[in-house]
Amino acid sequence: MNVRPLEQRDLSAWTALRIALWPEEDAAELAIEAAGHLAGRAVARLILVCEETSGRIVGMIETDLRSTAEGCLTSPVPYVEGWYVLPDVRTLGVGRQLVEAVERWARAQGYAELASDALIDNEASRAAHGALGFEEASRIVCFRKDLRRVCPGRRRTC
Residue 111 and which of 14, 54, 72, 105 are 20 to 30 A apart at CA? Predict the structure, then answer.
C-alpha cells in the first residue's frame, strides 16, 4: 500500500470514493467538485489516496483548514473533511496510514491539533477515530428549518 497525494489520473477512483462516502449528496455535484479541485479550484487543502501495488485506489482522505473546531484550542485547525476506505480493505490499516500521513503533514506545517467528525450513529467511524487516538470533543444535534415552506392555513412561512 502506498499513500500519496492525489493526481489527475485518480479522478474517477477518487470521485467513486467520495460518492460512497457521501451517498446522500448529488453524485454529479461531487464529480464536478472533484474535477474542479484537479483544475485548481480547491476542494480541500490536502488530499491523499492509498493505492495498492496493483494501482487500485482503496482509500482517500481530504483535509482542509478551519478557523475553529469543537474542542480545539488552536486556530487554524487541520480538519479531516472526508475519509473513506473501501470495505474490502478496512482491516488492513489503510485508514491508519491515511490519518498518519495527514498527521505528518500537519506537524510539518506547525499545527498542534487535528480535528474530524462522524455522524453520531456511525459507530464504525467513531471506533476508527478512537483507535487512531482521536478523543471525542462534543456531541451536538443540528437543526434546520426550511424557510420556503408555507404553514398550512397561513400566508406566511412557519
Answer: 14
The secondary element (H helix, E strand) that includes residue 104 is helix 94-108
Angle at 89 between CA 56 and CA 91, to 5 degrees: 155
Phi-psi category of 77—alpha, beta or left, where left has phi over 0 and alpha has psi -120 to 50? beta
Residue 90 falls in which region: left (phi positive, over 0), alpha (psi -120 to 50) or beta: alpha
Question: pLDDT tens digits for 100-154?
Answer: 999 999 999 999 999 999 988 889 999 999 999 999 998 887 787 778 776 666 6
Residue identified by cell 472526508 is: 82
- Residues near 149 by beta carbon (within 8 Å), at least 6 away in sequence: 157, 158
Closest CA to 60 of 28, 23, 86: 86
- Copy the grid coordinates of residue 123: 459507530
| Residue 59, number of CB atoms within 10 A of its CB | 23
- Note the pLDDT tens digit of each residue in 15-26: 999 999 999 999
